[in-house]
Amino acid sequence: MVDARNPLEVPGAWDKLTAWLVQAGTDIGAITGTEKFSVGQSNPTYKITTSHGIFVLRTQPSGPLLKSAHAVDREYRVMSALAGSNVPVPSMIAVCEDIEVLGVKWFLMGFVKGTTFTDPTLATLPSHQRSDLYFAQIDVLAALANTNPDLLGLQGFGKPTGYLERQYHVWTRQYRASEMETLPEMEFLIETLPKVMPVYDHACCVVHGDFRLDNLLFDDNQNVLAVIDWELSTLGPPLVDLSYWCTMLRMQAHWPIGGLGGIDRAECAVPSESDLTSRFAEKTGITIPDDWEIWIGFHCFRFAAILQGIRKRVADGNASADNASEVGAQAIPVAKMGAEILSNGLKM
């Protein structure tokens, strides 16, 4: 059965793709195998084996798309700019913004053979290696925080100021566009956040926008081989990705996108949040602010809005991943978590 959500499952799509690549001067050889990655909620991603090697294709999903969502062309641009920097990324090969080819935008990149971890307890690793992996992730995040967008040729990739305010408006708009019922906790976050938005004076850097464990590839020595999934990347303050990652680690362990909530980190031999933020401060010279909990509450709001978009795609029949229904439903507890954190943060 053809899956209408995924543009590469339309008959003749692979032939159109290879023909376009050849015309653009990129010959990947004869395709001998394709496999759609099962992880990832947003953009269908495929491993392509050819007579010339292994590649990865990333596309927008088919069907109606929210404005500014699924920005695979921005992913291609930012990873191209980061090539050769201290932030490891896959090699970029070609990008197609002509939707006449496949009906959507897409890009091709090199395949990075590494390990992705989805369980933040890192239970499959020996306990003495777990801190090494977490600190390797922090060190890459610090390298990203130290980037100079102008030197990378990313002028105009995003506005250098007002990140939190813009993100608030973007995700409020996206949430309203995908809203299916009234969630009181989201209404509280939407009403309260503009009144307490953190103030910062850091120079802007490249912001990944979804910096978490399963968006990194590691080698066997816990070194980061590549940071992937740059769909939400832009420019902003360096605390954005750190506070987002810490927010993700606070998610309850049993949720579809789970964190370390309810788990004793010391027993799991993984660093505490304080350990991670201290390492980041050491590597960047940036002090963790007193209003840290407001940053966490903001990211709960933003992530709940993202999850609500997944819920809506499930309802509309164009969600990409098999577990999209369960993941989208997480919007509700994340909104509740954010409302509680923000309320408590305002009392401090």
Spatial order of the strands in the main sheet?
1-2-3-5-4
List unreliable stretches of 5+ residues: none
List the secondary-structure elements in sequence, H or E. Answer: HEEEHEHEHHHEEEEHHHHHH
**Count of helices?**
12
Radius of gyration: 20 Å
Total E-strand runs = 9
Look at the structure and give the mean pLDDT. Answer: 92
| Integer tally of domains | 2
Global structural class: alpha+beta
Q: Can you identify the CATH superfamily of the largest domain?
A: Aminoglycoside phosphotransferase (APH), C-terminal lobe
- What does the largest sheet look like? 5 strands, antiparallel
CATH topology name of the largest domain: Aminoglycoside 3'-phosphotransferase, Chain: A, domain 2
CATH class of the largest domain: Alpha Beta
Q: What's the quaternary structure here?
A: single chain
Q: Which band does the percent of strand residues land in?
A: 5-15%
Describe the protein in words:
The chain has 348 residues and is α+β, with helices and mostly antiparallel strands. The chain folds into 2 domains: 7-110, 2-Layer Sandwich (Phosphorylase Kinase, domain 1), CATH 3.30.200; 127-347, Aminoglycoside 3'-phosphotransferase, Chain: A, domain 2. It has 12 helices and 9 strands. The protein has helices spanning 13-23, 72-82, 99-102, 127-145, 163-178, 184-196, 239-250, 265-268, 273-284, 292-316, 324-329, 331-347; strands spanning 31-36, 45-50, 53-59, 92-96, 106-110, 205-207, 216-218, 224-227, 234-236. A 5-stranded antiparallel beta sheet has the order 1-2-3-5-4. A two-stranded antiparallel ribbon has the order 6-9. Strand 7 (216-218) and strand 8 (224-227) form a beta hairpin. It is globular, with a radius of gyration of 20 Å. The mean pLDDT is 92.
